[in-house]
Amino acid sequence: MKALPPRLKEMKSQESVAGSKLVLRCETSSEYSSLKFKWFKNGSELSRKNKPQNIKIQKRPGKSELRISKASLADSGEYMCKVISKLGNDSASANITIVESNEITTGMPASTETAYVSSVSRMLTMTFWEKEKSRQ
Prior knowledge:
- It contains no helices and 8 strands.
- The protein is an all-beta fold.
- It has a domain of 85 residues: Sandwich (Immunoglobulin-like), CATH 2.60.40.
- Strand 5 and strand 6 form a beta hairpin.
- It is found in: Cell membrane; Secreted.
C-alpha cells in the first residue's frame, strides 16, 4: 500500500484576554515518520532567531504545538502551520485575537512607589491688652 501525503487537521481560531496562555495544535494523521513542521505568523516564519520569547514550539510524533504564554495584543494575528514531507506538504491556519483584560485591579502593584506629602501649619495668635486711659 502506498503512503499518502500528510494532511493536517483543521486548527481553530481563538480569542483570549491579555496575560493568558494559548496553545495551537498542528496535527496530522500521517504515519510517515519524517515530518517537518514550520510555523508562520502573518506570513513570516517563526524561527528560533525571530520568534518572540513568550512563544515556544514543541514537536511530538505526528504533531507540533505552538504555545503562547502571557499573551499580549502583539500576539494577535494569523498563525499558519505547514507540514513538509517527501510525500507532499499541507498547511492549516487559525486566527488568534488577544483583547485587553477588563479586570479591575485592587490595591497597588508591587512596582508602585508612593510618596506622602504633608504640611503642618501652626497658627500663633498674640493678644495684647491695653489699659484704657482715664478721661478727665
